[in-house]
């Protein structure tokens, strides 16, 4: 993690982030005040193994960050935290995020995420992303939202464009469309219901 002021390395000490270079301090909650997208997923299965959901989340996180969409992916964003500080950081990031991506590769994973986070989705743009499952198995309370099939070619670009549009960064989304036309890829449209 880096200091917003000087770009220096942040370390955690006494429940706050402290910049090693300039000494600036950030409370855990305030550090995550400018999150554009919160990525919800199930990290581990019942045997403690990393899920495919987590791997998809990491791939999307890297692509979103490369496009300057400030994203929260707990495996990386708060890897240095645990316990109460971890929960505080996750809750602050989710509360401040403008968009929420819910990733699932099974009906059970989607239901678990929706049951746990549903009250926190209010007023946010929610984007379900599924892989290797029937889209009709997505829980009813989010199934009315246009879901994105991660296995479709170009789905990551569609997701990024949708998020940029939702954030009011339409010129950047339009630029992605122009760049894709030059590569000869067919364009798809996502419609939010």
Q: Kindly report the oligomeric state of this protein.
A: single chain
Radius of gyration: 17 Å
- Would you list the SSEs in sequence order as H and E? EEEHEHEHHEHEHEHH
Strand content: 15-25%
N- and C-termini, Cα separation: 36 Å
Number of helices: 8
- How are strands sequenced across the largest beta sheet? 5-4-6-7-8
Which stretches of 5+ consecutive residues score pLDDT under 50?
182-193
Number of strands: 8
The coarse silhouette is globular
Taking the sheet with the most strands, its summary is: 5 strands, parallel
Please bin the fraction of helical residues.
Answer: 25-40%
- Which class best fits the helix and strand makeup? alpha/beta
Mean pLDDT: 85
What can be said about this structure in brief?
By secondary structure, the protein is α/β, with parallel strands linked by helices. Helices cover 40% and strands 16% of the residues.
